[in-house]
Prior knowledge:
The protein is mostly helical. The chain has helices at 3-33, 43-72, 78-98, 103-121.
Amino acid sequence: MLIYAFIVAGLGLIVAIAHSVISERIILGPLYRERMGGMLAVRTMRDIIRVVFHIPSLAWAGLGIAVLFNRLQSGDDLLPITAAIIFALSGIGNLAALRRPHLGGLILLAMAIATIADIRFN
């Protein structure tokens, strides 16, 4: 049953793209258009913040795809277990930080559940 691995990979790509695009449009873009003083006045600091902000997106997409490739190659369960933990912690962290249900956090929790289902049923 590759369906769970495909779900994880697909959701990983969706949540990663959405996180990066939405964060650029709603958070980083407007923030960097404001008049800046202090640390944000330095271009290098803004670049570092931007990169650090996008690293989770890369991790979610990469881990989702890795779960799929792991399943296609009949790999052991270490990678999917690690991915499930990261997805779950990311989802819980997202929900805790926003103090309300948020689509991104819910998708990450769904990815954790689908990864566990992939381990269980394969």
